[in-house]
Here is the input.
Amino acid sequence: MTKQQALYKYLLRLGDNPLILGHRLSEWCSRGPILEEDLALTNIALDNIGRAQAFLKYAAEVEGLGKTADDLAYKRDERSFYNNLIAELPIGDFAYTIARQLLIAVFEQLQFTDLSKSSNETIAGIAAKSLKEVRYHVAHARDWCYRLGKGTEESHNRLQRAFNELWMYTGELFEMYDEDVILVFDGVAGDLNTLKIQYYDAVQKILNDSNIQIPVVDYMQTGSRKGIHTEYLGHILAEMQYLQRAYPDATW
Amino acid sequence: MVNTQLHTRDSILQILSVICDPEIPVVSIQEMGILRDVIVHDNVCEIIITPTYTGCPAMGIIEADIQSTLHHAGIDEVKVTTVYTPAWTTDWMTESTKEKLQKFGIAAPVHSHCMDWSKPEQHAVICPLCHAEDTQIISHFGSTACKALYKCNVCKEPFDYFKCH
Here is the structure.
């Protein structure tokens, strides 16, 4: 793997996560439990799509084949997507969506704090920009965890169940792959291992404050760094890419 | 070709000063800090903009407005470049811009750096309608990504607050 290939794949990872999560969150549009929450989730979806655009645009430049961010989003196959599995899981119920938001947003806050010091100026710039937005995402998910966790027996049980189901997808966030090794050496990417303790500390504190038990799992899901996904990603892409596949380069 | 005799950085900034923020028509994109710079190259006029939020849907409209405004002024070769560094901040808004927001009914950002992110609602946000200090947050996410939704406990009206960023 050359440095250019490493950077390209790393940027796809940074772009695919918000692209797929943003797509998932947009499924809440008009279905939020209250109007304000509908707006909140779709606002967060928009932040994600915006970040995906920025990273995929840069990925296309690095690839150097004259593609655009849209080409990478709409004309790539499932096995070339590198988003973490947790981002592609169905939205589930509201507690499940909130639990996923917390697990991802806390990670992203640490990751972008780190990447805002990247030796790559473009990555550092997008990271610094995203960090401001992600802080709101953390606050949003955390406040809902408190309310659901300490709410009714029903809301508490649903949130607990969501964390129990999602916990095994958190290990993958920290997996270091070929591209990480190359890019960490140059100070482009951060060492994900160094974020792990902080991450679980931060999440556990919020779960404790929400009366939620820390799930115990003996297995962590893996695959996305190799482009191996759950059955759900194909369905997302079928919907998201349909128009550009059926009518290539169609414009409004 | 850009006629560099006719069009300088300052004159182009002057032409662009008429473009308003599509979501907040009382302030220009310059006052908002979205329009960062103009670089007059030999064959193209490059306009540097920076988004308030990465996913701001108004950016497409702003780019189209820049293109059409400059085309009307006789500048055909226009390139709009989006930059993320330095990251846009509400600190770039001048006091007069904040006053315009207030008059339009949007509470202006109080500050950005000293924000306690864990509890944004702790800071007193003054109602832009009746100027009461007794207000409460309804949602951190309002009608657009850059605004939060507040309610005034005195006049009971809901209002937008431009989030510190």
The longest strand of chain B covers residues 35-40. The radius of gyration of chain B is 18 Å.
